[in-house]
Write a structure and sequence with these properties.
With 90 residues, this protein is mainly alpha-helical. The chain is built from four helices and two strands, in the order ααααββ. A two-stranded antiparallel sheet has the order 1-2. A hairpin with a 5-residue loop joins strand 1 and strand 2. Helix 3 packs across helix 4. The longest helix has 13 residues. The relative contact order is 0.17. The model has no long low-confidence stretch (mean pLDDT 91).
Amino acid sequence: GRAVPEPLSVLSFADLPLLMKNISPARWALLKRLKKAGPSTIFGLAKLLERDYKNVHTDVSRLLELNLLEKNPAGQVSVPWQAVRAELRL
């Protein structure tokens, strides 16, 4: 059978500074590491990233709000997508 494409979700920010504020380099690193590692608790993720639990918790909370992370019933977070495509308009 044919491969079914993943559903496309659109996440919009008014401008590049707002995008960078919401998806900072640290948050991007978190997403990449978590995608590779698979589902993890926030505590486990903080250990993996060698970052402060409180800061990782803040980042995870925001990424959950943006639907860039999912949380399972066991309280583990994971990255449910494969790619982000950005479009910047002037």
